[in-house]
Hints:
Structural class: alpha+beta
Shape: globular
Radius of gyration: 16 Å
Order of helices and strands: HEEEHEHH
Helix content: 40-55%
Largest sheet: 4 strands, mixed
Number of strands: 4
Amino acid sequence: MADTQQVDQKAERKVARLAKQIGTFAKAHGGAEGQVAHIGERGARIVLVGEDGGWGDLVAPSTEIAQQAVEKAGITVHESFDGEFAAKVRTGPYEWKRMAGIQIGG
């Protein structure tokens, strides 16, 4: 029984840590929306898009923990990274250079 409580406390701490990071991102970008995607054994990716078009991501150890974190942070969560949501992302020179480099073999 003690092992279960320890695992639950660890998960709760991870949820709280992720929610705090999401909140910090949202505050820095005038608000935020997100999407949770399962990435296999590694867990789940939380993609964040700020109101100013800034973006980032976090990795959670499970989809359940990711879902709890975005709920705790109070952000809008999208089912998919569809065109309307993706259009809110603003990329800068670094991203364009990286994308061009990938296209020309760099």
